[in-house]
Amino acid sequence: DNLDLEKQWYQRRVRGKNSSGCWGSHAANHINGSEGTMFGPFMDRTRAATIYNEQLFRSIDLSYVRDTSYASIPCYRYELPRWALQNVTYNPINAAYYAYKYTGMLNLTKCASNVPLWISKAMFLDTDMRIQNNVTMDRGPNKTLDETYVCIEPNTGVVIDGHKRVQINIEIQHFNVTGVLNHVYPSFIPIIAVDEHGSITPDLAAKLRSTLLTPLALIHYGYWVLVAVGTVVMMVGFFWHVMIIRNKYSIGEEDTTAIVDAEEHNSEATDSPEQYLSFEGRGGDQSRYLDIE
Fold it and tell me: N or C: which end of the chain has fewer CB within 10 A?
């Protein structure tokens, strides 16, 4: 089973612990998933790629996005889904992660000894627009530059390219006695942005292509060549069989025509008057045997 093979690469303990211990349910605290560099072989597009992200203190199912390639190696691209960091309004399952306030942000307060830390995608990608508007940065979020993703070679389950991009922020909370700031949306100060990148080297990519992809391509195309040859042979055999049947039918018609012609010829010869001769033979007049008008 492919799923069982994938689970061979799952982490069971991180820093000696088998549970993160800071979320609201056993399932949310459970450490489950690959560390993000290796998955099970024979990846299926319909199956999520499960990772345990140490920065997020939780397991996440990366979602298949599209087929792509890296270093001329075909691969599946998986990304950190939008729903993983949505609040309970959009994704009720995230209640276990205390996602009651801001969408696109993960509340790490209980994981950080009650320090109001929040984690998001880089440059506040996929967060509430009010959060983005309250922070002045060099540029706005860009999905191409700020998304977390991995490119997985599907036959081996090896990650050949990937970026893990997260941003840790601290919440600026309001301590408003007079109520002047009641209508001001909270803001965040980015503390640190992390971009972990890994990709296959050119030498390893060439080795993977020559030892795995080229034989698989030969098998694939060889299969279709054999199918085409078999189809041609079958069609030739079919037409050959039809021609044999037609030839036999033609010969049979010729034989039948010859027999009919011979019978007609014999019939004409039997009815001819020339075969009845007038002769006298021993024993008297033999004219009584003739049928002459």
Answer: C
Which residues does 54 contact at the CB level (< 8 Å), separation at least 6?
14
| Those residues with Cβ within 8 angstroms of residue 59's Cβ, 6 or more apart along the chain or in another chain | 30, 31, 32, 33, 50, 51, 52, 53
Tokens for 30? 């459970």
Asked if residues 42 and 154 have their Cβ atoms less than 8 Å apart, the reply is: yes
Alpha carbon distance 158, 200 (integer Å) = 9
**Would you call 256 helix, strand, or coil by DSSP?**
helix
Element (H, E) at 214: helix 214-270
- pLDDT profile of the chain (293 residues), mean per 10: 52 68 88 84 88 86 94 94 93 92 90 89 91 85 94 92 93 66 73 91 90 72 77 83 74 56 56 49 48 46
**Residues 106-137, buried b or exposed e (16+ Cβ, 10 A)?**
bbbebbbeeeebbbbbbbbbbbbeebbeeeee
248: three-class secondary structure by DSSP:
helix
DSSP code at position 92? G
**What's the pLDDT at 255?**
55
The predicted pLDDT at position 278 comes to 46
Single-letter amino acid, residue 36: G
Burial class of residue 162 in the structure, from the number of CB atoms within 10 Å of its CB (0-12 exposed, 13-18 middle, 19+ buried) = buried
DSSP per-residue letters across 139-157: S---HHHH--EEEEETTTT
Both structure tokens of 245 = 């049947």
Residue pointed to by tokens 């019978």? 263
Answer for the pair 231, 239: CB distance below 8 angstroms, yes or no.
no
Distances (CA, A) of 271 to 242, 258, 291: 44, 20, 12
Q: Are 166 and 121 in contact (CB under 8 A)?
A: yes
Radius of gyration of the chain (CA): 44
